Structure to design on (225 residues):
């Protein structure tokens, strides 16, 4: 049975991210593995240091895993760490860089297999975007392939700070049957191991089906091996 999956709208490791304490408890982890791939060109170690301080307050260690370029995603050492992790957190940044580094690599396969085996997985902003399929392309708001841990769902991160024009354009491009989740910063859309979805954190999540307002009942079932 797959573990908890948290799709976070951004603003990770800051006040209001109340869901992290519950995710730590649910995972049973003694360490949170922080993957800053998407922030490779935006001072990734600052986010790691922020995570270390944040999770220290929650009573658990955090450690960064420097999967920053594609060769790193083939490193046996990093792959082993991802396979063994009970709570992995993929931070924000560039979803296009994150996808280019991790697509079809042993690192991504290990991360996905750990989650499918019961580990907790969180992705914030870019991390949340790539876990779904399709993925919102930040270059214009259209859709592009993601990794598909959740199919039929796309995420707009930091929905509370998106311009109405940009959000409206993406909604208009949504095909029938696609669920679009606009997730505010410091807010998580969480799927539990039984398959139920709920919202936690400081903000809100706006749900659309085919571009039309909807509710959590339309979210797709996540099927795992």
């Amino acid at each position: 049975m797959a573990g908890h999956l948290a799709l976070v709208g951004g603003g990770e490791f800051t006040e209001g991210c109340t869901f992290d304490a519950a995710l730590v408890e649910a995972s049973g982890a003694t360490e949170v593995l922080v993957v800053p791939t998407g922030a490779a060109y935006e001072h990734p170690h600052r986010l790691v240091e922020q995570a270390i301080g944040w999770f220290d307050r929650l009573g658990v260690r955090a450690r960064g895993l420097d999967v920053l370029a594609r060769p790193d995603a083939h490193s046996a050492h990093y792959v082993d760490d991802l396979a063994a992790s009970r709570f992995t957190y993929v931070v924000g940044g560039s979803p296009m860089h994150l996808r280019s580094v991790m697509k079809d690599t042993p690192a991504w396969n290990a991360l996905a297999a750990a989650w499918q085996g019961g580990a907790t997985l969180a992705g914030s902003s870019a991390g949340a975007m790539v876990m779904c399929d399709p993925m919102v392309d930040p270059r214009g708001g259209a859709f592009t392939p993601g990794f598909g841990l959740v199919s039929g769902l796309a995420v707009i991160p930091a929905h509370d700070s998106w311009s109405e024009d940009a959000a409206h354009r993406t909604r208009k491009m949504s095909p029938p049957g696609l669920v679009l989740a606009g997730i505010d910063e410091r807010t998580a859309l969480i799927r539990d191991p039984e398959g139920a979805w709920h919202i936690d954190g400081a903000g809100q999540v706006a749900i659309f089906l085919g571009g039309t307002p909807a509710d959590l009942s339309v979210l797709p079932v996540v099927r795992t091996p």
Summary: The helical segments are 19-27, 44-57, 76-84, 95-102, 106-116, 126-131, 164-172. The chain has a mean pLDDT of 95. The chain has seven helices and 15 strands. The first helix runs from residue 19 to 27.
